[in-house]
Sequence to fold (230 residues):
Amino acid sequence: GAVVSQHPSWVICKSGTSVKIECRSLDFQATTMFWYRQFPKQSLMLMATSNEGSKATYEQGVEKDKFLINHASLTLSTLTVTSAHPEDSSFYICSARDRGIHGYTFGSGTRLTVV
Amino acid sequence: GNSVTQMEGPVTLSEEAFLTINCTYTATGYPSLFWYVQYPGEGLQLLLKATKADDKGSNKGFEATYRKETTSFHLEKGSVQVSDSAVYFCALSPILTGGGNKLTFGTGTQLKVEL
Fold:
């Protein structure tokens, strides 16, 4: 079945540094990628939607200059958290869709801790 | 807009007990409905789905029937196991085909199964 590989699975960084999270679709073409943030014991909050080759569409309240999303190819999308602060610590999950009817495939998530 | 309402957790059951997790939705048209499961520290895995009224999704002993008349998609399992302990999310998508439509999630229901 469809697989999305998300890396890293966890990362610890210092305040002020930037962190890049990658999501790769391994056996299908991800025409659309969704990036979510999840706080402990809460549901997923959609941050942005990106289509291959075009700019991401951000949800209201999400800072696009802080959370940079790149979807340059049909198999790779990246989320870069710039100038990270402790309040950015969270669990980030990507989800990919292809052109067919296979639904949504989720990555395994990245636990970001900013110290 | 679209919304999904799930019963609040945590739900604690003994092994082999019957499970019901309620889910109701609000949406225009004929959305697709999903149940996802999230194990600790992991991303989401699709458990089952239904794309039209009266469809029954099933997987690993779990079932849910798309009830348009009651706008519900309740998750059931006849005999839970300890390994079923996880967080369960109900979700909807406006349409299954096409690349851009995003999922709307419920708040999640934590299930704990004890021996």
Q: What stands out?
A: Chain B has a mean pLDDT of 91.
